User: Fold this.
Amino acid sequence: MQKRFLRSEKRPGIGEALGLADPGSPVELADVGLTYPGRPPLRALEGVSISMQQGQFISLIGPSGCGKSTLLRIVAGILNPTSGTVLVEGDSPVAAQRAHRFGFVFQDPVLLPWRTVQENVELLTELVGLPVNDRRTRAKELLELVGLRGCEDFRPDQLSGGMRQRVSIARALALEPAILLMDEPFSALDEFQRELLNSELLRIWVERHCSVLFVTHHIEEAVFLSDTVMAMSPAPGRIIEHVEINLPRPRTDAMRVSPEFLQLRRYLREVLIH
Amino acid sequence: MRSRVAKRASSWVIPLIVVVAILALWQLLVVSLGLKPYFIPSPLRIASTFKDNFRSIVDNSVPTIAQAATGFAIGNGLAVLMSIWFVHVSGARRALYPLAIVLQSIPLVALAPIAIVTLGNGFTTKVVMTGIISFFPTLVNMMGGLAAVDPNMLQLFKSVNASRWKVLAKLRWPTSLPYLFAGLRITASASMVGAIIVEWISSDTGLGYMIINSTYQFDTPLLWASIVASSLLVLVAFGLVVLVERLLVPWSRTAQVGP
Assistant:
């Protein structure tokens, strides 16, 4: 816990830069709901409230169709909620997106097959018009960070699924976002790759001092990664349980079989399945 | 490694053996049954006719190639431009794309006489016909290709306020290239076939004219030789497109396999 405070102090948020005492929570959802009009209206989300701390790792977990990905899209400003308020660092999601506060990682790596790994990581910095040398250096650093040094000139189809997802994470970090929005990023990987990338993600998260909102349907993964796990009900999605994961950090693979870990896992399982 | 080489070789060798076997059987049947050349010529007879008339075949190929290539370039060029317009202006797409689909279903053979009546008998008519033939398959393919972008990738572009031009240049256009080449592969051979068909109906030069003329004169070996020439041209046109595709779109074959 001590370490976490140090970590968030090191990060100069925009709030501090503006001289505000309270830089504002990275993500603040108050009573957010989404109903699609129709007969009958389709209620996708209901009364969702989340208050994220600076540098926090929050997972949203729930059965398929519970609206967890929808919630992520609302935070990103892609979808508008029909009720409630969303604030990202004290601003609207659309404004936050415009200021490049988000990094996106999707279930599929969605890389451009005609670009090399390096060029894929440079995509967003290129689109915002960063000078060539800057974006090249930055992409190199990011590839090093995600453990892909030496793979710069490969094309995506020459990489394994896990490596492609690493490229996708590097790309998401290219504009130095404050918040990573991850939509089931490891669900297409096998169990070994998933566990490996879980640990890698935590390492990257600590190094980059960002907050993470992570959608998954994998209980063990949620427990391993998160500070807080939000369990959601089937549609209309509501947060039915808010579980603090008080396992020490850094998390190690050995913890996956510790009694505390297994207890949390069992508890979440009961919440979600019964 | 060795088995891969063997596989490569067998993909060439086996069809080649089959072709040679068919030709040998054909030769054998024609000779042993004593069939007359004007009824059905033997492969060797066709080959010698091809050689004897090589000059004339080349001379007649030139206008056919010119018509096909010009129509191919214009038709495909317009199709690409129009697909880009349609993707960006939904009003234009809704107004015109259904019409394009309907027009596509009109068979060329039915359209050719109309074109000749209205546009006359010259090069223009033939280019218009081969252009129309080249236009529709590529338009339909490009409509699919420009729209085949991953919604999440589009979202990434939007997240950095990328202009439509950048989305087109860096995302839609490269995404559509495999689709474009699928269209070009179809229209490369179709424009050649189209040029030949239009020459049947009205022309005094070209491979199509040769085919019709040798039929009227019961010069069946020459008929076969000009058919061989036509199919060689179609194969070359197709091969050129495939070659350019391999150079420009090296990811095309692997892209569709991966996730």
About this structure: Chain B is about 85% helix and 0% strand. Residues 164-201 of chain B form the longest helix (38 residues). Chain B touches chain A at residues 150, 152-153, 155-157, 159-162, 166, 170-171, 174, 249, 251, 254-255, 257-259 (CB under 8 Å).
